[in-house]
Amino acid sequence: MRRHTRAEGYTLVELLIVLAIVGMVAGGIVGVYQVSQGIYTRATALEDAQLGARAGLDRMASELRLIGSYWVGASCAPLPNCNAITAATPTSITFRANVDDSSVINGAEATPSPTTTGNSVPLSITAGQTGDAFKVYQNPADNDYIYIANGGRREVKQITDINGSTLTLASALSSPYSAAGSLVRDVKIITYTRNASATSTCPTLTCLTRTQGGSGADPIVDNVSGLTFFYFLSNGVTPTTDPALIREIQIDLTVCIKRTPAASCQDPDSSSRQMTTRVKPRSLP
């Protein structure tokens, strides 16, 4: 009796068909993954750009609102320029303000101690607290100022030296100030702009920087591709370039995150966010 056997398994044609189907499915999955990954990466970059722009605007706006604080209304003689805003260009702004209230130590006011005359001001706070509140630098033009007031008398003087708790001023006070009823504050010189030269972390013109006195430029936000200031009179409409007349400031800040260093912000793969805010300094008349 003859036995018939049947071969088991797949033919070559069947295997090729299966491989083709698997390849098509896998290719579709990879394609979907790549598209999804690209969307996720771009969305993350856009979020980072928006967060960076928002952080930079918030930091600048909070300090620009303080322009002229503990400065406007005080005598600044013999300074040649009493403007709270000392320089205002489309790409940078420099101003004087009490931005940190660091002459109030743990809630305690710094006061003259004892009655102060001339160009020497001993303070009621410790030497360490004095050094934290007031700064002098290699370039005397960058030094902090002291605001001192009592009743209707108000003066600002630039500091030339700090010795313990005693400040030496560039010029003498116009009248004596007693400890009772006197108010003392520190006034800083602040500049916001983009970095003009490259650093280890910031290629040229890619970081928003903040300079306080002569301490050097500190990067605040990276990946910055644009920073523009606009200045207006008190009506908020008429533009001005005169620092003495500025009453409202508009800031346009653009942050651009590129996929590659050689890419431009106009490339489809780059993620860019521009944000704008307007500020009215509270202390300007």
UniProtKB/TrEMBL annotation:
<keyword id="KW-0812">Transmembrane</keyword>
<dbReference type="Pfam" id="PF07963">
    <property type="entry name" value="N_methyl"/>
</dbReference>
<keyword id="KW-0472">Membrane</keyword>
<keyword id="KW-1133">Transmembrane helix</keyword>
<feature type="region of interest" description="Disordered">
    <location>
        <begin position="262"/>
        <end position="285"/>
    </location>
</feature>
<feature type="compositionally biased region" description="Polar residues">
    <location>
        <begin position="267"/>
        <end position="277"/>
    </location>
</feature>
<feature type="transmembrane region" description="Helical">
    <location>
        <begin position="12"/>
        <end position="33"/>
    </location>
</feature>
<dbReference type="InterPro" id="IPR012902">
    <property type="entry name" value="N_methyl_site"/>
</dbReference>
<protein>
    <recommendedName>
        <fullName>Prepilin-type cleavage/methylation domain-containing protein</fullName>
    </recommendedName>
</protein>
<dbReference type="InterPro" id="IPR045584">
    <property type="entry name" value="Pilin-like"/>
</dbReference>
